[in-house]
Amino acid sequence: MEMRQYGNFGIMLPALGFGAGLIGDAGMDENYVGYFVNQIVDRGVTFIDTARGYGLSEERVGRHLSWRRKDYILSTKVGYNIPEFQDWTYDCVIAGVRQAMQTMRTEYIDIVHLHSCPKEILEQGAVIDALQKMVQDGAIRVAAYSGENDALEFAFQSGRFGGLMSSINMFDQRSIDAVVVPAAKQGTGYIAKRPIGNAPWKHASQPIGNYCEEYWKRMKTMQFDFGDEWLDVALRFAAFTPGVACSIVGTTNLDHLQKNIDLVNKGPLPTAVVQKIRTAFRNYDQQWNGQI
Asked: Can you give the pLDDT at residue 118?
């Protein structure tokens, strides 16, 4: 697996990371989860991204992976849902980081993101101050922001975050030129979420109410048809977007995981294909905002 620098923090991330939301499902067999997450790390996917809001995900990361903490880079997201604390406050962020450390059985967390924090809260500064306090205390290595659109641009322009995360895929490209490229030039670490856009090509007709419905409509408007190569093209487009250190994909299937690894290991798409995808987005763009 290709390893890349994440900003200027001495952190190396694999080109493909693991989005741990799906392992938060309480219905999953605990023994399988333990086997699965260790296989992920064994196969070179050594970046684990979770969040307080992902069910049992943090708890399971701690239970099954804390014994080999030095083998992977750990990221989580905070800012909300801490009993006795108001969401999006200084104290809530501090408590969220400490709770995450306890839950995941770790003495530090490599990257902590404010999880889709509204712009108006960011502008007040307290939640950012809290993350930076945790950096100063050695609880976290990088203070980061995960979000979209105006809030993402504010987070970047503030210069107060060492890392950023946003949706980057064939159908969600607005942040590439606006944030990803300039952020990389300034030494900001960048992670791409939703690199395959929730796979809208799997639906023959508009998947009303489905998480990928908006991306399905964009796909049709852009008039793309990559046949049997959809996954290949989509994943490699995001993974090799200039400035992106790591693209995170969620799965609970080892065959799917290995296929994703094999695709990323093929390297970048041909330049002509990338240009076709970028041009189509620009030509058909209908003020398509980043999907949260």
From this structure: 96
**Phi-psi region for residue 243, left (φ > 0), alpha (ψ -120 to 50) or beta?**
left
**Amino acid 80: pLDDT:** 95
Q: Which residues of 232-268 are buried (b: 16+ CB within 10 A; e: fewer)?
A: bbbbbbbbbbebbbbbbbbbeeeeebeebbebbeeee
3-state helix, strand, coil in the chain (%, to 5): 45, 15, 35
Residue written as token pair 């203070």: 143
pLDDT at 139: 98
| In contact, 197 and 217? CB cutoff 8 Å | no
The neighbouring-strand residues paired with 4 are 13
- Domain 3-284: give its CATH architecture: Alpha-Beta Barrel (3.20)
Mean pLDDT split into 10-residue runs, the chain, 292 residues: 94 98 97 98 98 96 98 97 96 98 98 97 98 98 97 97 97 95 95 96 94 94 92 98 97 96 98 96 93 88
Distance CA 23, CA 55 (A): 8
φ/ψ of 74, rounded to 5, equals: -115, 135
Contact 159, 140 (CB under 8 A): no
Confidence at residue 225, expressed as pLDDT on a 0 to 100 scale: 85
For residue 15, which of 3, 27, 23, 7 has the smallest C-alpha distance? Answer: 3
pLDDT at position 91 is 98
In eight-state DSSP terms, residue 291 is: P
Q: Let me know how long the chain is.
A: 292
Q: Residues near 24 by Cβ (< 8 Å), separated by ≥ 6? A: 50, 54, 55, 56, 57, 58, 60
Structure tokens at 3: 């390893």
| 3 state DSSP class of 261 | helix
Which among 99, 98, 108 is positioned nearest to 74, based on CA atoms? 108
The residues spanned by each domain of the chain are 3-284
- Which pLDDT does position 9 carry in this prediction? 93
